[in-house]
Amino acid sequence: MVRRLGTRLRTATRRCYSTVKRMRAFGLSLIRYVASILSHLLPQSHFARIHRRRTFQAIYRNQEWGTDGDSRFFSGVGSHGGPAAAYVDAMIPVISAHLSECGDQPKIVDLGCGDFSVGARLIKRLPGLQYVGCDVVPEIVEHNRQRYGTSFVQFEDVDVVSEDLPDGDICLVRQVFQHLSNRDIACVLPKLRKYRFVYVTEAQPLERSGRPNPDKPANADVRFDWRAGCGRGVELDQPPWNLSLKELLRVSGTLGVKEVIITHQVRFSD
Ligand SMILES: C[S@@+](CC[C@H](N)C(=O)[O-])C[C@H]1O[C@@H](n2cnc3c(N)ncnc32)[C@H](O)[C@@H]1O
Fold first, then answer.
1. Cys-Cys crosslink for 201: which of 45, 174, 245, 264, Cβ 3.0 to 4.6 Å?
2. What is the pLDDT of residues 150-198, one digit of tens each?
């Protein structure tokens, strides 16, 4: 009798425990869902900033953009392989040509600098240039600061959507907009006007299909189907932005990714 009572009690406790666990998981996913809707609707709110930070922290923690096996942070294959090298080769002469127009202490501002793999290659070939890398993930900013920070190379914890951007001359935004929502991008674009030269790099599908600039929440994904190579990416020269762009570079994505990575200079009208 006592033993049966004990067994029943244990079964009831187990059931109760698993119900609480399920309710907790449901509550958490509900909170995440409401948070993503709110941050989508009010991208400049404090709440949205926290949501974006958590989203990109989780991407790095869960290695959603892959890993190289040793690095603590990995911003994706596009930040390391052939596309990154081609970008650096193309940007060196472009940046060098701007330097004479940028005063005594030309400064590059790299928005969404990630693991600094691209920035490090640039800076190595442009010694003496001031560089500020910004990212929404404070851990990566601190990591970069400890590892690469000098009096010329600095890192700031900035959410480019909701906060002021550092001053500078040349602004680089490489493979960042593709992970943000259209409302987020709309908040950033007017802030880029303060830079003399702005270069935006975005991945595009091999075949364009559907309407331009489909929306998506801020996350690790891009707008198009990179396995099939179709859909649409972020196109700043299309509605709702209709900006004037000059193409600078076009490189194929890495193996198995049906995309082309395009760098444009953005020319804002006065
Ligand atoms: C795919 S990685 C690209 C990194 C680097 N630009 C490159 O080309 O190697 C995108 C980076 O943008 C950062 N990011 C995303 N949203 C941001 C925001 N609102 N403010 C600042 N950084 C952001 C992410 O944390 C991530 O490090």
1. 174
2. 999 999 999 999 999 999 999 999 999 999 999 999 999 999 999 999 9
pTM for the model: 0.89
Ligand 1 neighbour 137 (Cβ under 6 A): yes
DSSP 194: G
Q: How far apart are the first and last CA of the chain?
A: 87
Sort 247 into a burial class: Cβ within 10 Å, 0-12 / 13-18 / 19+: exposed
175 CB under 6 A from ligand 1?
yes
- CATH number, domain 77-267, options 3.40.50.150, 3.40.50.1000, 3.40.190.10, 3.30.70.3270: 3.40.50.150
Q: Does the N-terminal peptide bond of residue 239 adopt cis geometry, omega within 30 degrees of 0?
A: no
The contacts of residue 98 (CB under 8 Å, 6+ apart) are 106, 169, 170, 196, 197
261 close to ligand 1 (CB < 6 Angstrom): no
Bridge partners of 267, per DSSP, are 244
Question: 173 forms bridges with which residues in the sheet?
Answer: 111, 200
Q: What percentage of residues in the chain have a pLDDT greater than 70?
A: 99
Greatest distance between any 2 Cα atoms in the chain: 91
**Residue 218 CA, distance from chain mean position:** 9
Residue type, 216: K
> What's the CA-to-centroid distance between 11 and ligand 1, angstroms?
48
